[in-house]
Amino acid sequence: MATIAKTIVATGATSGLGFELVKQLLAQTQPYKFILGARDTKTAQAAFDKLNYDSSKHSLTLFPLELSNLKTVKAFSQQVLDKLGQDKIDYLLLNAAIGKNAEQPGPFGSKWSEPYIVNHLSQHYLVHLLREKLEASQSRIVVVSSGAVRLVDDPKYLEDDLKGGSKTERSVYPATKFVQLLGAHWWRRQLKGKCTVVAVSPGLIPHTNLSRNSDQFQLHANHPDAKTVPEGAQSIYRAFVRDDLPEDPDQIFLTSWGEWWPKDVYGLSLDKTLQDKWSPSKDEIEREEGLTA
Ligand SMILES: NC(=O)c1ccc[n+]([C@@H]2O[C@H](COP(=O)([O-])OP(=O)(O)OC[C@H]3O[C@@H](n4cnc5c(N)ncnc54)[C@H](OP(=O)(O)O)[C@@H]3O)[C@@H](O)[C@H]2O)c1
Q: What's the rounded mean pLDDT across residues 223-234?
């Protein structure tokens, strides 16, 4: 009997760890239907075509997605829903990120910086836009997080540090990943009993493009904990398949070595008031970012 294809909707699968993960999945006997957001669909299509995967088994669709522009997030979500029709989403992978400081003014007139919008706000907005389908599908939402969340030791600086034009000397990337984790906890609470939300760290993987735009943080290839891109992709994949989710609902973080992190490691992100603050509603986002007619 033919195995039913699993549908994966993903951000950030056009290079680095996300691309490698899709590549690994395309080599499985399990069939997949991928619907992927890409800044440059042509280049991404050429890269996937080069993999020579079995297109009678897997399907792969690319739609434009520029996460610094929330309008494209809205258009992407509609294209995803149109493409899906009655089909469900088995997995939503939120993997896209940039490592960049917040010195530039916010894109498209936003008060927020590009790294905040790309790494958190726009992907949080995407979950709002897909919410009904995710709930109906009982999807698993995999949020690619980072051990860097531990570098945030006082959330009171987040608001200033993440604004466009911020001159902060603190590193902005960990702050974006921290608010992203707040959002993962928030969605886990909102979607309780309907979807599964898992945050996962791929580990320290120097050979990706993550730090290409940043002089604030660099990933050193000779770091003793450094892992390869295929190893990093495998860590993310574990978040798709692990079914031993801890009983404590706050314990959502899977490490790159396969341990469910004790929640005191990311204790600051368990503050529900903070989770609420950094998880704006769909209407608030559309109003603040000028998306309403
Ligand atoms: N590398 C590490 O050591 C490490 C450690 C901990 C966590 N992580 C996390 O792992 C995830 C993947 O990172 P990576 O290391 O593989 O980085 P990467 O090679 O830079 O890949 C990032 C992905 O995000 C996409 N992206 C970036 N900005 C975007 C935008 N404005 N609109 C749409 N897509 C955008 C990129 O698209 P393009 O192909 O167009 O560039 C690419 O597909 C991130 O969430 C990162 O925070 C990485």
A: 93
Pocket perturbation via mutation, ligand 1, pick of 68, 77, 98, 207 by most ligand atoms within 8 A of CB: 98
pLDDT > 80? residue 177:
yes
* Number of other residues whose CB lies within 10 A of the CB of residue 247: 5
CB contact at 8 A, 253 and 265: yes
How far away, in angstroms, is 97 Cα from ligand 1 center?
4
Whole-number pLDDT of residue 104: 96
Q: For ligand 1, what atom is nearest to the CA of residue 204?
A: 3
Residue-level pLDDT at 212: 80
**Ligand 1, atom 25: nearest CA belongs to which residue?**
12
Q: Which domains does the chain have, with CATH numbers?
A: 6-288 (3.40.50.720)
Mean pLDDT (the chain) is 96
